[in-house]
Amino acid sequence: MTERVDELLEPGNGWADRIRDRVSELSPELTALVLHLGQAGSFWDWHYKVDAAWKRQTKALLKASGARQLVAEAIRALAAGGSLHDCTDPNVTWEELWAKSDRTPTRDLANGFALAAGYLARGAAPSELQDLVDDLVTVARKNAFVLDGYYKRDDELSGAVFTALADLSAMEALWTLHREVQPGAHSHRHLAKMVRKTAARLGVPPHQVEERTVHTHGVGEDGTLRLGWIGRGAVWLNIPYEAVITVSETGRVSVDWIDVDEGGTTTRTVAPFRSPTGFKTKYLPHNVDATRLLAGKIEDTLCAERRRLHALLHEDRVWPHAEWARYYRDHPLTGIFARALVWEYETGEGTWTAGLPHQKGCLALDGGIVDITGTTRVRLWHAKRATPTEITAVRTFLAGSGIQQPYDQLREGA
Question: What is the value of pTM for the model shown?
Answer without folding.
Answer: 0.88
